[in-house]
Structure formats: structure tokens, C-alpha cells
Amino acid sequence: MESDAASGAEGHGATTEMDATQAGAGHGDAAHTTGHTEVPGGKNAFPPFEPAAFPSQLFWLAITFGALFLIMKRSIAPRIGTILEERRDRIVGDLAEADRLREETDAVIAAYEAELKAARRHATSLAEERRTTAAAELAAKRAEVEADLAAKLSEAEARIETIKQRALSEVNTIATDTAVAVIERVAPISVDPAEVASAVSAVRSGN
């Protein structure tokens, strides 16, 4: 009985010692974990800002930067260069086309101005020619009208002179006949009409 009691006491003591050891180990782990996750002052640190993580972060940063650089160099940069080259070629082509169109426009404007000057000279020459022709035609027409008027005037003067001479001859005849009739009526004598005509002519000439 005493031996069983002693054995039970020893077993209980061993169990208590193991529990104490496990409790101490758990407390040590908790203390170790707390030492890694806490910073002085009792606040938790952001993991990327921990100094122990800097080497791995720098390593992956270098790898990422190198990968991005290779992607940019082999894929994106050639495309950008091609786009810039195409845009430069397009700009150069547009400038060349603009210069060509400007030269064509200048040539068209110069040709238009030359044709306009030629048309003005032709119009001036034509107007001068028409003016000269009109002046010549007017002078010829005036000369023709003046000649016609002179001919008609001469004809009228000749006709007037004929009528005048006829009237004068008729006046002499009338005066002679009247004088003969008056003499015969006043004095019952016979007179010669020729003598009376001569007397009438002499009287008219004296007047």
C-alpha cells in the first residue's frame, strides 16, 4: 500500500512537472512571436517596412524592373518607334503635298494674272481700234452729209436763181404789158411794145 501511494505521488509529480514545462514552452513561443510582431511602443509594424524584408523586396524589385524593361524594349518601344516613324513620314508627306499644292496654286494664280493682263491689253486694243474705226466712220459720214448738204444747197441756189430770173423776166413782161395798156388807155396812140420793154428795163436798171 505504501509503495502504491509513493508510486502515485511520483506519477502525479511527473505529470505536474510536464505540464509546467509545456506551459513554459508555450509562454516562450508567445513571447518570441510577440517580439517579432511588435515594435517598441507596443504597435504592430507594416510588413514591407520591416528591415528584414528589404533584401527580398530589392531583389524582386530588380527582377520586376528588368522584366518591364525587357517588355518595353522588345514590345512596346518598337511599336512606339514605328508609330512615331509613321507619324513623321505622314507629316513629311503632308508637308510635301502642301508645298506641291502651294506651288500649283501659285502657278495657277500666275497664269490667271497673265491671262487677265492679256485680256485687258486685248480689250484696250480692241476698244482703241473700235474708237478709231468709229471716228473714221463718223468723219466719213460727216463728209458725206456735208457733201450732200453742199450739193443740195447748190441745187437749191441754182433753182432759186432760175426762179428769180424767171420771176424777173415775168416782171418785165408784166410791166411792159401794163405800161402799154396804160398808155393806150390814157392816150389813144399806138406804141411799140419793144420800146416800152426797153424803157421798163432802163427804169429797173436805174433803180
UniProtKB/TrEMBL annotation:
<comment type="subunit">
    <text>F-type ATPases have 2 components, F(1) - the catalytic core - and F(0) - the membrane proton channel. F(1) has five subunits: alpha(3), beta(3), gamma(1), delta(1), epsilon(1). F(0) has three main subunits: a(1), b(2) and c(10-14). The alpha and beta chains form an alternating ring which encloses part of the gamma chain. F(1) is attached to F(0) by a central stalk formed by the gamma and epsilon chains, while a peripheral stalk is formed by the delta and b chains.</text>
</comment>
<keyword id="KW-0175">Coiled coil</keyword>
<keyword id="KW-1133">Transmembrane helix</keyword>
<dbReference type="GO" id="GO:0046933">
    <property type="term" value="F:proton-transporting ATP synthase activity, rotational mechanism"/>
</dbReference>
<dbReference type="InterPro" id="IPR002146">
    <property type="entry name" value="ATP_synth_b/b'su_bac/chlpt"/>
</dbReference>
<dbReference type="GO" id="GO:0046961">
    <property type="term" value="F:proton-transporting ATPase activity, rotational mechanism"/>
</dbReference>
<keyword id="KW-1003">Cell membrane</keyword>
<keyword id="KW-0375">Hydrogen ion transport</keyword>
<keyword id="KW-0066">ATP synthesis</keyword>
<feature type="transmembrane region" description="Helical">
    <location>
        <begin position="52"/>
        <end position="71"/>
    </location>
</feature>
<comment type="similarity">
    <text>Belongs to the ATPase B chain family.</text>
</comment>
<keyword id="KW-0472">Membrane</keyword>
<comment type="function">
    <text>F(1)F(0) ATP synthase produces ATP from ADP in the presence of a proton or sodium gradient. F-type ATPases consist of two structural domains, F(1) containing the extramembraneous catalytic core and F(0) containing the membrane proton channel, linked together by a central stalk and a peripheral stalk. During catalysis, ATP synthesis in the catalytic domain of F(1) is coupled via a rotary mechanism of the central stalk subunits to proton translocation.</text>
</comment>
<feature type="region of interest" description="Disordered">
    <location>
        <begin position="20"/>
        <end position="44"/>
    </location>
</feature>
<comment type="function">
    <text>Component of the F(0) channel, it forms part of the peripheral stalk, linking F(1) to F(0). The b'-subunit is a diverged and duplicated form of b found in plants and photosynthetic bacteria.</text>
</comment>
<keyword id="KW-0813">Transport</keyword>
<protein>
    <recommendedName>
        <fullName>ATP synthase subunit b</fullName>
    </recommendedName>
</protein>
<dbReference type="Pfam" id="PF00430">
    <property type="entry name" value="ATP-synt_B"/>
</dbReference>
<keyword id="KW-0138">CF(0)</keyword>
<keyword id="KW-0406">Ion transport</keyword>
<dbReference type="GO" id="GO:0045259">
    <property type="term" value="C:proton-transporting ATP synthase complex"/>
</dbReference>
<feature type="coiled-coil region">
    <location>
        <begin position="95"/>
        <end position="166"/>
    </location>
</feature>
<dbReference type="GO" id="GO:0005886">
    <property type="term" value="C:plasma membrane"/>
</dbReference>
<dbReference type="InterPro" id="IPR050059">
    <property type="entry name" value="ATP_synthase_B_chain"/>
</dbReference>
<keyword id="KW-0812">Transmembrane</keyword>
